Amino acid sequence: MTRTVYVNGEYLPETEAKVSIFDRGFLMADAVYEVTSVLNGKLIDFDGHAVRLKRSLDALDMAEPCSKEELLEIHRKLVTLNEIEEGMIYLQVTRGSDGDRDFVFPSDETKPTIVLFTQNKPGLADSPAAKKGIRVISIDDVRWGRRDIKTTQLLYPSLGKMMAKKAGADDAWMVEDGHVTEGTSNNAYFVKDGKIVTRPLSSDILHGITRKAVLRMAAEAQMAVEERLFTIEEAQQADEAFVTSASTFVMPVVEIDGQILGDGTPGPIARRLREIYLDESLKAAV
Ligand code: PDD
Q1: Which atom of ligand 1 is least distant from the CA of 90?
Q2: Which atom of ligand 1 is least distant from the CA of 157?
Q3: 3-class SS at 156?
Q4: What pLDDT is attached to residue 248?
Q5: From the CB of 182, is ligand 1 less than 6 Å away?
Q6: Which residues in the chain show pLDDT less than 50?
Q7: 187 ligand 1 Cβ < 6 A
Q8: Dist CA 78 CA 100 (whole Å)
Q9: Is 70 helix (H, G, I), strand (E, B) or coil?
Q10: pLDDT score of 139
Q11: pLDDT tens-digit profile of 74-124?
C-alpha cells in the first residue's frame, strides 16, 4: 500500500509529494514540527501538540498554516487513508520559500509549507524495549539556546543517537553545566526513595507533551515529584530512571554510562507510570 501524505492542501501518494529546493525548512531548518502518536487508530493528546505547535510558530514569528480544526481533520484523514492502528503522525511547518536563498525572512505573502505523513508502527504500545529498559550514555549538550521551540534542527540529537549506538547503548542524555538537560528526543527522569526527579521547564529543554501528562498522572497517583536540576552521578545512584516522549510514552532506563540501576530491570514506578499513561491517554484519545 502506497503511503498517502499531505502537502500544502493536497493528499498525495508519497512518491508524488514535492517541496521546493528553496524551502527554508530545507535550506535553513527554518521549520517546526510535532510528532503525535496513534493508538487504536486514535490520536494521543492532539490538543497538547496543537497548542505547542502554535507556541513554536509564535516564538519564530511564523504564520499558522491552518486552523486547529483543519489540523485535526488532516491528522484523522491520514490515519484513515493509511489504515494506521498504531504509529505516529509527523507534522512539519516551514517558513516556505520565495524562490531563492536569503537569510532575511521572505515577505509576509510567502505561504508556510505544511507537510504531514504517517509512520506505521505496529506494537508501539507493547514495546519489547519497554519490557527490557534502555541503556543511555551522557554527552555534552551543544545545542542552541531555544530548545523549548520544537525546530527541525535535529543534527546534534541525531549525532547523539549515533554516539550512543557506537558505545553499544540505546540513547544519550545531554549534559550542560554539569546538569542533565534531556534525552536526544525525550525528557529525562530518575527516581530515588520513591520521589521522581526531573529538570524544570525553561528554554533549556523541550516542554514535552508526554512530560506534562505524566507529571499530572504521577501527582494524581500520589507519587512525589520534584522539578530540579540533577547530575548524571545522581541519576546513576538512583533506584530507577526513565524517559518520556510521544513515540516511546514512558520508557524505563536501566543503565547510565555503564552503571546499572537497581537490579538492571525496569523499575516499578516507571512501569506503573507507563501503564497509567497508556490507559489514561487511550481513554482521552480522539
Ligand atoms: N521528540 N525532548 C526532545 C529534545 C524531543 O525531541 C522530544 C520529542 C521530547 C519529548 O516531547 P513529547 O513528549 O512532546 O514528545 C523531549 C519527538 C518524539 C521526535 O523528535 O521524534
Answers
A1: 21
A2: 4
A3: helix
A4: 98
A5: yes
A6: none
A7: yes
A8: 31
A9: helix
A10: 98
A11: 999 999 999 999 999 999 999 999 899 999 999 999 999 999 999 999 999
Characterize the bridge pairing of strands 224-227 and 195-198: parallel
Write b or e for each residue in 142-161: b if 16 or more Cβ atoms lie within 10 A of its Cβ, otherwise e: ebeeebbbbbbbbebbeebb
Give yes or no for residue 206 CB within 6 A of ligand 1.
yes
- Model pTM score: 0.97
Cell digits for 147? 530548545
Domain ranges of the chain: 4-120, 128-284
Contact status, residue 273 vs residue 241, Cβ threshold 8 Å: no
- The answer to whether 144 and 156 are in contact (CB under 8 A) is no
Answer whether CATH 3.40.1400.10 is correct for domain 128-284: no
CATH of 4-120, one of 3.30.470.10, 3.90.550.10, 3.40.50.10860, 3.90.110.10: 3.30.470.10
Query: Helix (H, G, I), strand (E, B), or coil: what is residue 107?
Result: coil
CB-neighbour burial class of residue 103 (10 A; exposed 0-12, middle 13-18, buried 19+): exposed
Specify which residues 245 forms β-bridges with: 249
Active site residue 77: no
**Could you report the per-residue pLDDT of 33-44, keeping only the tens digit for each?**
999 999 999 999
